C-alpha cells in the first residue's frame, strides 16, 4: 500500500507515487474500502445531510446515523452503554478532554497525577500547562525499562491518597511497547483512593489489539480513528458511567454537554464503520496475524542482511509485549533523518513519531530518552510499521532498500576517515 512520507518531494506535476512502499502506519493508515464507501454513500444521500440536533425528519435521520456509529464504537471496546462514547475531533482532543476535564472538576483541591515519560504530546503538554497554571497540581513520572515497559513496583510506590488521575498509554507509538494496563488498574484500585480516575490513550492499540474496557476496568479511554483505517479529524473518548468530567469547550449541550458543536456526521460514520470492522473478532485476528507476519518477515530479513554485513544494529520489538506491526531499529553510526530523506521517493517510514518530526529544533523523542537511549543512538533510530494491507513483496523490497541505504551511508562515513 502506498502513500508519501515527505511533502517536499511532492511537486506541481503530481508525480506518480503508486510505487511507494508505505511502512508508516503508526503515523496514519489508509481508510478501509468499506469506510470510504460508507462516507461516500452519506455524501450522496439527500435524506441525512441535516443537523443531528434538528427535530425534522432529515435531522432525525442524521441523528440516527450518529447514534448508530456510537453503538458501533461501543461494541468495538465492549463498553456497557453507548452513552459512554463521546465523539471528538481525534486523539488529541480526547486526551485533553480526559485530563483537563477530570482536573478541572477539582480545580481548587490538591491533585496528584501519575503518568509515564513517553506519553503522546497531547498528554504531556496539557499536563505541563495545567501544572504551570495551578499550584495545586503535582506530577510524578513512573520509571520504564529499556523495553519501554513501566516499572510496576515504582508505579505502586507513586500512588498516594492525593492521586486523582493516572494516565498511561495503552501502547507506545514509537517502539510499540504494550503496557500492563490491567495490572496498573489493579494496583490503582488496591492502593489508590476511591476517587482515583484511570485514563489510557489507546490510539495506537485500536485495530492491533482487542480492547475490552470492561475487562480493563478503566475509567477513560482515548480512540483515534485514523490510526485504524478510519478517517482523520474524528475520534472518541470512552467515559465510564459515574465519572464526572468538566467540559473544556463552551457552547451548546452536544455530546452530553462535554463536546459542544454540531457533530461531524460524515467523519463519525467513517469512525463507526472502522470500529464495526474490528468488532468482528475473526476479522480482527486475521488483520493482526497479517500485520505480525509481515512485521516478522521484515524483522528476520533485516537480521539476515545485517548479520551478513556484520553491521551493528539494534532491532527492538518482535515479541508478545509489543504491537504486532511495529519495529524500532537503531543503526550505529547512521543519521536516521538522512536515511528517511534518501529513500523518500521509494519508501515511506519515519525516524519516530510523526507528531515530532516537524519540530525546527532537532531533539530526540521522549520515548527514546525514557528507555535510556543515548543521543547518538537515538538519532540513528527509525520506526517501521506495517498494516494488514502490507504485502510480502513490499516487505522484501523494503529490506533491500534499507540495507543498501544503510550500507551506503556507513561506507561514506568510512571514506571520510
UniProtKB/TrEMBL annotation:
Pfam families: Aminotran_5. InterPro entries: Aminotrans_V_dom (IPR000192), Aminotrans_V_PyrdxlP_BS (IPR020578), Cysteine_dSase (IPR016454), PyrdxlP-dep_Trfase (IPR015424), PyrdxlP-dep_Trfase_major (IPR015421), PyrdxlP-dep_Trfase_small (IPR015422). Its cofactor is pyridoxal 5'-phosphate. Gene3D superfamilies: Aspartate Aminotransferase, domain 1, Type I PLP-dependent aspartate aminotransferase-like (Major domain). It comes from the Eukaryota. Residues 21-397 form the Aminotransferase class V domain. Keywords: Iron, Iron-sulfur, Metal-binding, Pyridoxal phosphate, Transferase. SUPFAM superfamilies: PLP-dependent transferases (SSF53383). It is an enzyme of class 2 (transferase). Its EC number is 2.8.1.7. One of its GO terms (molecular function) is iron-sulfur cluster binding. Belongs to the class-V pyridoxal-phosphate-dependent aminotransferase family. NifS/IscS subfamily. This is cysteine desulfurase. It comes from Rotaria magnacalcarata.
